[in-house]
Structure formats: structure tokens, C-alpha cells
Amino acid sequence: MTAAVGMPAEAVAGMRRAPFWGGMEATARTLPYDGRVMGDTMSGRPLPADRWRSVTVPVLVGSGDAGAPHMLTGVRELAALADNFTLRVFPGQEHTIAPGLLAPVLTGFFTIGERA
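Below the sequence we write its predicted C-alpha cells.
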């Protein structure tokens, strides 16, 4: 988490005491693949606009507004790259969005004629 994601060691130490840590350890082997897929998009530099130029289908981009500021900045920048990208910000939510808030947004997005 410190090397691949850039989290402070103190944050990781706290996470190790959390109930979800076992699940994270079980999927840790996927981190190198995640990093490879994400490439330099997590570097903090502006997103390369041409990377998503070929995406022509509707895309839903979302984030909570109470999580890490860089995540919200990233989704806002991504959503601004194309007219077919729709941004949804979930007030009071962090990295994990409550299912009761997320489900109606997904349902509406994937229902023909309800995209806004």
C-alpha cells in the first residue's frame, strides 16, 4: 500500500487493525496488475485527454465528496474530458458509496432514456 498506492505508513498501520484487512491481504496479489492498468494516471499530473478520445459510449464517473480530495479531483477531470462522460458526486460519501445511494444512480444511468 505504501509503495503501490502511496499511502503513508501510519495509515497502513491503522488499516491493519481494521476488520477489512484480511480481505485486502487476500487480494494484494492483484495490486501489480492494478498498477499496470492505471499506469501514470495516479501520478497527480493532468489526465491525457487523448487517451479517452475513442470512448464514444456513455460513461458514468462518480465519487464521494468526503473522501481523499485527489479522488474527487480525478473524477471531475475525467468527466470533463468528453460530453458522453456523466459525473455524479455523492455528498457525504467517501471511497465506498453506500449501496442505497449508488443503486438508483446506476439504475437510472443504465435505463435507456434516463441519462441526464
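The chain is about 40% helix and 10% strand.
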